[in-house]
Structure formats: C-alpha cells, structure tokens
Model the fold of this input.
Amino acid sequence: MNSKVESVLKEIENFKATSEKELEEFRLKFISKKSVVTELFSEMKNIPNDQKKAFGQQLNEVKQAAQNKFKSIIDNLNSSSESGTQDHVDLTLPPAGREIGSLHPLTIIRAQIIEIFERIGFNVSDGPEIEDDWHNFTALNFPENHPAREMQDTFFIERNPDMLLRTHTSNVQARLMKSGTPPFRSIMPGRVFRNEAISARAHCVFHQVEGLYVAEDVSFVDLKQTIYHFAKEMFGKETQIRFRPSYFPFTEPSAEVDISCQICKGDGCQLCKYTGWVEIAGSGMVDPNVLENCGIDSEKYTGFAFGMGLERIAQLKYQVNDLRLYTENDVRFLSQFKTGL
Done:
C-alpha cells in the first residue's frame, strides 16, 4: 500500500471525536472537497499506468473508511446525547405547567353587568356596528344641526344615504322598539366609535352598555331604583348615588348619575377632581318623540333609558387610569385579571 495512503488510513482509524466541534474537524480534514483524501485523489496523475488500478482501489478504501468513520462518530454522539438526557430527567418532578390565560378586564365587567341586570328581568340585545343615520340619529330625536352629525365627531362611511360607525348602542334601542311591541326590558352592550384623539382619557373605540325599559306606567322612580340596584351590586352596598339634572336629545327629563369615588371614598382625589363624586352614566325618561318615531303610542307607554361606558366602570372597579391600556394587549397588564369571574 502506498505510504501516504497508509498514513491517512491509520489517522482516520485512530481519530477520536467526542464533541460536535471535533466531528466538524474530522469532516473538514477527511470528507470535504479540500480534505487530505481529495489531495490523494489528485496524485493519481503522477502514478504509473500499471499501478493506477491498485492505487485507485486503495483510494476508494480510504474514502469508504472516512465515510464510515464519520457516520460512526455521529451515531456515538447521538447515543451519548440521548443517554445523557435520560440520566438528567427526574420523573418524580411535576410536569412543567402552562400559564393559564386570562379574561380581558372589559369582558369581566361586561359579564358582571349582564348578570346584575338579568337578575331583575333584563335581557341582552345586539345590533350592527355599521349603522344608517335614521337608527343612529333621526329616530333618537337628534336635530339636523346636532354636532354629532358632523364628520369631526362621527366616522361616516358613506353619504346619501348616510352610513356611519355607530356612536352609541342607542341604535339597538331604536331597532328593538321599531321591530316589536312593548313591554321592552333589555340592555345593549357593544363597541362604539367616535372621532376622538387617543389619550389617557379618550379613545376612538370604546364600549357601552345601554338599557331600555318601555311599558305602561313606567316612571322616574323605576329608573332611580334600577340604577340604585346596579350601583350597589357593582360597587358595594356602602356606595352613595346621586342624580344631577342634564340634557340628552332622546330623554326628557334627563339626569347624570354619579357615585361616591371608589378610590378616595368621597374624601376627594385627582380622579374625582376633589369633589368626592364620579359620573358613571347618563339616564332619563324616553322622549315621547323617540317612542313615536319607532311606532310606539306615547300616550299609552312610557319608558326610561340609561347608558354607561364599560371603560369607566372598569376604571373605578380596578383603578385603571389610562384608557389605552385596554387596547394595547400588554400581557403584563392583562395577566392581573385571571380571577375576574
């Protein structure tokens, strides 16, 4: 056997590789295109013709030995890796747990509000987020020159006929009254849209829950007792409630609903602007024009309506001061609400 061939063959047989780094060293030296085995093949041209056949057989033997050795090293490394992993597995340890997901705080608040009102006979109604002008404004007694009908306050999608992203869930009230016959007792949770600059206190997308009760002999007393029940169930029996006269196009008389501040307990803080009170809802008796617009006899039926923002209720419940947190999908924020229901 050629001395060079014999030397390379012995080097292959004696090579020890116990790591991936050494395996790569073997590959580069004996398997790659620039290996010593490739160099031996290049010497074929210098071998006399009568010796070429024998020399070629020796080269093939070296090449096969290198490939077999390479495969053997790989098998040994894989075997060592598997046995090493098994040796370090403690089968008595509990399995690695998966982190449980959490409900969004607005989802939690929405479910709690629905539960409170369902216990006193309200059902849940839903309607489209893309709405026409009549259901969103005209049926609800908005005058033609009302600011809410302007592009700077409302997201209009089309003109003539006007189509828009609803500015409140009152459109569901209009659809409910238009399509049925009293009595109605329902709440309308949903997403609404207004052309607001996004900040800690305002957002162009937020959530509302509105309520409607229309029947014979419904009075403002019924409205007040319903709101009292909700506020004390949501915020606690010690919560104080007050009504302030206000104005809305679709109710008459109208009132804002305040509760005692949940953060300072009425002593005064930045959230309540040091008044001890925080507004949670608007409310009032349904304007007779709204009833008539929806085909309901205002001489026979009366009703009340109210509306509140889910974000505001969640702010008071969880003391969240920045509305942007609800839509940023920050896991650090959302993971705080794992035990919401």
